[in-house]
From TrEMBL:
The lineage of its organism: Bacteria, Bacillati, Bacillota, Bacilli, Bacillales. Gene3D superfamilies: Winged helix-like DNA-binding domain superfamily/Winged helix DNA-binding domain (1.10.10.10). This is ArsR family transcriptional regulator. The keyword Nucleotide-binding does not apply. Residues 1-92 form the HTH arsR-type domain. Keywords: DNA-binding, Transcription, Transcription regulation. GO terms for molecular function: DNA binding; DNA-binding transcription factor activity. PROSITE patterns: HTH_ARSR_2 (PS50987). It holds the Pfam family DUF2087. InterPro entries: ArsR-like_HTH, DUF2087, HTH_ArsR_DNA-bd_dom, HTH_MetalResp_TranReg, WH-like_DNA-bd_sf, WH_DNA-bd_sf. It comes from the Bacteria.
Amino acid sequence: MQLDKLVHFHKALGDPTRIRIVTLLKQGPLHGQAIANKLGLKPPTITHHVAKLRDIGLVYQRRDRNTIYFYLDHKKLEFNANAILKIGEETKVTQEMKVEEKDKLSIIKNFFDADGTLKQIPSQQKKKLVALAYMIRQLEPGKTYNEKEINEYIKQYHGDFATIRREWVMHHFMYRENGQYELNPKEMWPVIF
């Protein structure tokens, strides 16, 4: 949520009369005269405060014959009230994702040559999973591969195709049955970082 919208929302609610109107409307829709009577205020005062609440989208109105009823947008109230607790989370998540992506790219750069071949299979689990995910990215989901096809595919990255193939199966990147290989859904892949 944009910070200026959040500030505008809280400024509009920063009045005891408006908070009391919101409290009344939480119980159900009311017309202006009913709100005025319950709060002991004049109808023009209620009109002024309801207009401020309408400006931020917290209150909307519906006409029933000659009477206008005001309704509280409960979802908008809840969203805006909780939004202040989420300030900074988006930035934090984005920053964490950027760091993770940089780390993954660094691992790929360190373990793969410019032509895309794997220099060596990383011994550290985290780095190995990044390398395995990088190598498997061009296989097609839903397609079944025989062992020879998988071996040929792996050879473009590394000569030890048996180890890579075994690692893919062990870490649930792939499923193997009767010499046939198929990618598992990404939800089954290990969480990398």
